[in-house]
């Protein structure tokens, strides 16, 4: 705080010592002054250096904006068709390739799968053996001879044994068989052996059922050998429902996969005994008749344990429907669908559907691999071989391969997965292992890997994944995670922002990692890797450090001279800013949305600290060098330091995207302190270059308007220069309140001194140019010079806003209290106020040059008006003056901005008023026509300069000298009586404004008797009368009279008795006056009360006077003018003592020597004034 106060006090003393910019420049200019005017032309080299200097500074100021544009252009340049860079990985991640022997065994497995394929193929599958074998030959790089050997071996091997897995899930909308409106459904299902084509036709005419009545079974004994039951299973009974849910699973061995049939019955159970227990021996039955007879016996035994009426046929189980599914109609991947229930005959009534899941698979395979490897391992090898082959033949964007294989490959893989009875979860895990492993050597689309992860998560069942499969899945997750972390570390090279394709891949990769760490499978098989975000954070940090080290190695900022080192540091900081910009715009969004890691905060804090360490060391060397007496800051060094400051400011500005808690502990928080002394010297360089630029601009200026504007090139150059310097300060954004105050004070002082010097140089240029120029061209140049000064003045009027004075005041108030704020306000506004005064003074000098040029002509035209004979009308008398003004107005209105036009017109108006006043003063007491003519002249000038609202405002024009002149002319045109009447009107007006005076007051009562036309005046008493006697008292009496006398020629003045030795006399005297309505209706008709001090030995002394207009109590309707007028309350009149000679009316009446009334009136007032002077 002490340092801040000392700093502030020193600056305030400096400002207070320089109260006026003009006063500082009044001594003769020295050669060291940067803005000293010199008639010799400025060397071209200096002016060019100044312009180039500001161009370079402007480029530095636009660095951040250019960086944003470059970042956008960088992203736009990377089209999707441009392949992303290679994703380099460690060799440890690359899996081993299969040997030839293993490929031969795997090829045998594939051929065996093709030969033994079953199921109805879909449109996606290939049905031709030749096409499938042709594909396998290419995929395994197998020769024809080798293929024939392996195919023959497979054909001679034992055919695959198949089984059928049946899942009875649920049924819906069954028939209600019980009295309660429900049924108690259960299912019976089994495999029926294959039938001949003729028997199949007969089957279409009748429906098979596991339960038929005995007589029907006996009639069909002919099919005894055709329909034996292979295996019969039964589900649980679901009581009282029409929409049962069983979710029971059964497996049946299949003898003839091409001809066997799956049959399912649904029955309504009506007994209390479990049907499932009663049907355990059904599998021992062979032949339909034996099964039917045995089922009848079971049914009877079940019912015998039921109700008493169990012997009734009504308690028999009711048929609800059946389903017959030939195995050769089952698709390759099986059935998972709803089947409509069928009746057992045309007379049966059934309804509803049953949901079944059917899948055929091999229970035994005769291949070498199947005897030593698990089905999972074999399928994984097969898929890996096919994936490698398929990817190698992708021509367009192989890095973006979505994993889709050709139909032959898909056919082989599908049949193998079905035949080996791989569950959807096992298949998903195998696909993930293969594709993620393959991705480590040959890039694939990350959306494929993400899709595979989602499939695993959707099918996940921790019970189904144990042993080797669990270990393998864990390893695949680990390897993929390490691979991605390696890529994250090198993301700036692998996933650059210049490639849209690379960024898209990076986003998908991060989504995959983010999805993986939240998967149930990942948490189950990798329980110790529950903090993957920490690994990601570590990879980002390490990658950021390595990238910055490579940046330092590229630019080598430690080599070369100090200035060269700083320039290299600028390049390092700029590259860091660009990287941080990419982190904030692109990478951070990807990281946060995918893995909830704040990439920007991690990388920014790391880079910010490393940059701060390097720059602080370099700036210590700079400050040490500048502190040496022989060292000075060169312009190029200053530009480099300024550019380094701006680059650091840009880098620091990114902290606004950090969480609040992190933004407070940054290494660059106070980096401006490293530049304090350098910036001071840098601003001096800016000031010197500005002065050179302004001086050169004035010298080159031809005082011709630029384009459509009314100012010249120098004004444009000056305001442009000021704008650039202002922008320098705004971009500096100095955070320290004391330092900001010093800098703002210095900048304001520089601006003001440069502006005033510019206006002085322009004025001197005009003064030199007026010699030998005609009136019009000189006026035009003078107008342009005025506009130049006004443009600069208006521009600097925005300094409080442009330099954020309020922000500096608030900062100083926080650090130094209210006193600091007030001192800042006074200091800065004092500078601006003095500058404004100086510029306005220069503007007045220019306007004076213009009016001085006009003065001879104006005098001649005013004299012409004054001397014009009465025979000439007013228009003719005024016409020469107005024509001259009109010509002048055309020139100045075309060349002046509105503010300057107003100033010039105001000066012309004031000059004309003074000249007319002088003419009137020289001609008092002349004919009325003289004053009428000048009155006409004034009104003509008033409308001329008003310009129908475009010029001076009437309100402004009718003030000051105009009021004096108007009053002078008006009164000079009045008769003596009118002047006297005006005198009393002014007295009445003045009386109304009196509230309290030191001359006392008088209390009176007035009332008017209208029928009698009589005015009664009661003078009651007075108070605080002026003491005019030596004893400190007075002998007052009051003279009351009607005025003006020419309105009341018959009325005589009346007086009260003298009250001796008192200042508070009580009179209580009545006086009567005759007043007619014609008399009291005049506004100037009044009663005057003159208080005098009676003297025995000399003339009475004047103590004070008051007036009361008759309209207050004589006008009809007034309380004083009614019958009750006597009861009205008295009123107080305050006394006054004004000198009559001070009024213009007195001077005019006094000038009318031949007028008796005027002289008499003046004589009476002079006597009163003489009495006052004697006192």
Key features of this structure:
1175 residues, alpha+beta, Immunoglobulin-like, 6 domains, 4-stranded antiparallel sheet, 16 strands, 11% strand, disordered N terminus
Strand order of the largest sheet: 4-1-8-7
Shape: elongated
Beta-strand proportion = 5-15%
Instruction: Spell out the CATH superfamily of the largest domain.
Output: C2 domain
Radius of gyration: 58 Å
* Biggest beta sheet summary: 4 strands, antiparallel
Structural class: alpha+beta
User: How many DSSP-defined strands?
Assistant: 16
Task: Give the C-level CATH assignment of the largest domain.
Answer: Mainly Beta
Low-confidence stretches: 1-5, 10-46, 211-230, 282-314
**Number of helical segments with 4 or more residues:** 40
Count of all domains: 6
> Into which percent range does the helicity of residues fall?
55-70%
CATH level-3 fold name of the largest domain: Immunoglobulin-like
N- and C-termini, Cα separation: 65 Å
């Amino acid at each position: 705080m002490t340092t801040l106060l000392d700093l502030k006090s020193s600056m305030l003393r400096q400002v207070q010592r320089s109260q006026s910019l003009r006063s500082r420049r009044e001594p003769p200019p020295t050669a060291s002054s940067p803005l000293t005017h010199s008639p010799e032309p400025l060397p071209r080299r200096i002016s060019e250096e100044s312009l180039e200097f500001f161009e370079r500074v402007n480029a530095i100021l636009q660095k951040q904006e250019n960086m944003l544009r470059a970042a956008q252009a960088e992203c736009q340049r990377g089209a999707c068709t441009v392949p992303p860079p290679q994703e380099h990985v460690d060799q440890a991640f690359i899996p081993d390739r299969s040997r030839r022997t293993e490929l031969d065994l795997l090829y045998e497995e594939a051929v065996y799968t093709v030969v033994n394929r079953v199921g109805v193929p879909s449109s996606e599958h290939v049905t031709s053996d030749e096409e499938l074998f042709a594909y396998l030959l290419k995929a395994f790089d197998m020769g024809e001879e080798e293929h024939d050997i392996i195919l023959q071996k497979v054909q001679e091997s034992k055919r695959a044994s198949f089984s059928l897995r049946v899942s009875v899930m649920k049924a819906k909308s069954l028939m209600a068989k019980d009295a309660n409106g429900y049924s108690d459904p259960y299912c019976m299902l089994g495999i029926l052996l294959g039938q001949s084509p003729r028997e199949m036709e007969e089957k279409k005419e009748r429906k098979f059922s596991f339960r038929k009545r005995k007589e029907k079974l006996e009639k069909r004994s002919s099919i005894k050998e055709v329909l034996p039951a292979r295996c019969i299973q039964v589900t649980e009974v679901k009581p009282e429902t029409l929409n049962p849910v069983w979710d029971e699973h059964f497996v049946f061995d299949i003898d003839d996969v091409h001809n066997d049939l799956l049959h399912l019955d649904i029955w309504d159970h009506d007994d209390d005994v479990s049907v499932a227990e009663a049907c355990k021996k059904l599998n021992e039955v062979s032949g339909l008749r034996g099964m039917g007879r045995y089922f009848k016996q079971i049914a009877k035994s079940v019912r015998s344990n039921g109700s008493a009426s169990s012997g009734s046929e009504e308690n028999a189980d009711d048929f609800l429907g059946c389903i017959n599914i030939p195995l050769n109609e089952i698709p390759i991947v099986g059935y998972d669908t709803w089947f409509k229930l069928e009746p057992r005959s045309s007379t049966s009534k059934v309804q509803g559907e049953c949901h079944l899941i059917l899948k055929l698979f091999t229970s035994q395979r005769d291949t070498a691999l199947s005897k030593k490897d698990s089905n999972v391992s074999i399928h994984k090898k097969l898929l890996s071989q096919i994936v490698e082959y398929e990817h190698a033949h992708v021509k367009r964007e192989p890095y973006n391969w979505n994993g889709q294989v050709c139909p032959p490959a898909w056919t082989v893989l599908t049949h193998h997965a079905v035949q080996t009875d791989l569950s959807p979860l096992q298949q998903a895990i195998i696909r993930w292992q293969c594709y993620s492993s393959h991705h480590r050597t040959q890039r694939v689309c990350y959306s494929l890997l993400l899709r595979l992860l989602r499939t695993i998560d959707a099918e996940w069942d921790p019970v189904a994944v144990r042993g080797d499969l669990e270990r393998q899945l864990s390893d695949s997750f680990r390897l993929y995670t390490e691979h991605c972390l390696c890529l994250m570390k090198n993301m700036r090279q692998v996933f650059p922002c210049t490639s849209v394709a690379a960024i898209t891949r990076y986003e998908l990769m991060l989504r995959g990692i983010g999805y993986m760490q939240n998967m149930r499978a990942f948490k189950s098989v990798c329980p110790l890797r529950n903090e993957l975000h920490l690994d990601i954070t570590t990879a980002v940090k390490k990658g950021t450090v390595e990238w910055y080290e490579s940046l330092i190695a590229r630019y080598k900022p430690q080599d070369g001279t100090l200035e060269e080192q700083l320039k290299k540091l600028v390049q390092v900081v700029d590259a860091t800013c660009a990287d941080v910009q990419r982190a904030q715009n692109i990478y951070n969004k990807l990281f946060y949305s995918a893995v909830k890691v704040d990439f920007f905060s991690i990388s920014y804090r790391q880079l910010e600290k490393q940059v701060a360490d390097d720059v602080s060391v370099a700036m210590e060397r700079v400050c040490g060098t500048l502190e040496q007496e022989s060292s000075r800051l060169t312009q190029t060094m200053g530009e480099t330091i300024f550019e380094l400051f701006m680059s650091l400011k840009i880098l620091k500005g990114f902290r606004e995207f950090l969480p609040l808690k992190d933004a407070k502990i940054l290494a660059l928080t106070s980096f401006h302190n490293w530049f304090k002394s350098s910036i001071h010297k840098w601003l001096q360089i800016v000031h010197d270059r500005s002065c050179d630029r302004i001086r050169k601009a004035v010298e080159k200026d031809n005082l011709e308007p630029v384009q459509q504007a009314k100012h010249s090139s120098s004004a444009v150059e000056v305001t442009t220069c000021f704008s650039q310097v202002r922008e320098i300060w705004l971009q500096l954004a100095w955070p320290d309140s004391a330092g900001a105050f010093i800098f703002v004070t210095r900048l304001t002082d520089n601006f003001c001194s440069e502006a005033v010097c510019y206006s002085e140089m322009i004025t001197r240029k005009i003064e030199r140019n007026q010699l030998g120029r005609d009136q019009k061209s000189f006026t035009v140049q003078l107008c342009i010079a005025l506009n130049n000064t006004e443009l600069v003045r208006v521009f600097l009027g925005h300094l409080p806003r442009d330099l954020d004075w309020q922000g500096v005041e608030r900062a100083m108030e926080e650090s130094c209290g209210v006193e600091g704020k007030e001192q800042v306000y006074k200091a800065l506004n004092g500078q601006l106020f003095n500058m404004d005064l100086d510029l306005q003074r220069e503007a007045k000098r220019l306007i004076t040059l213009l009016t001085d040029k006009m003065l001879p002509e104006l005098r001649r035209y005013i004299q012409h008006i004054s001397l014009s004979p009465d025979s000439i009308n007013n228009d003719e008398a005024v016409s020469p003056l107005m024509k001259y003004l009109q010509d002048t107005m055309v020139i100045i209105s075309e060349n002046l901005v509105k503010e300057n036009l107003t100033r010039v017109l105001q000066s012309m108006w004031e000059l004309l008023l003074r000249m007319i006043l002088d003419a009137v003063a020289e001609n008092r007491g002349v004919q009325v026509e003289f004053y009428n003519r000048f009155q006409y002249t004034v009104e003509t000038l008033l409308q001329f300069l008003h310009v129908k609202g475009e010029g001076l405002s009437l309100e402004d024009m009718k003030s000051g000298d105009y009021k004096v002149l108007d009053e002078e002319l008006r009164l000079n045109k009045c008769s003596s009586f009118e002047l006297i009447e005006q005198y009393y009107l002014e007295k009445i007006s003045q009386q109304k404004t009196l509230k309290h005076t030191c001359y006392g007051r008088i209390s009176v009562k007035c009332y008017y008797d209208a029928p009698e036309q009589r005015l009664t005046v009661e003078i009651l008493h007075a108070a605080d009368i002026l003491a005019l006697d030596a004893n400190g008292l007075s002998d007052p009496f009051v003279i009351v009279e009607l005025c003006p006398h020419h309105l009341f020629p018959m009325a005589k003045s009346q007086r009260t008795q003298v009250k001796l030795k008192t200042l508070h006399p009580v009179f209580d005297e009545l006086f009567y006056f005759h007043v007619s309505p014609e008399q009291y209706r005049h506004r100037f008709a009044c009663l005057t009360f003159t208080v005098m001090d009676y003297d025995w030995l000399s003339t009475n002394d004047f103590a004070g006077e008051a007036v009361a207009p008759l309209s207050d109590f004589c006008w009809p309707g007034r309380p004083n003018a009614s019958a009750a007028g006597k009861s009205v309350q008295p009123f107080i009149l305050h006394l006054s003592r004004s000198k009559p000679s001070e009024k213009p009316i007195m001077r005019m009446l006094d000038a009318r020597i031949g007028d008796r009334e005027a002289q008499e009136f003046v004589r009476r007032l002079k006597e009163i004034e003489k009495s006052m002077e004697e006192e």
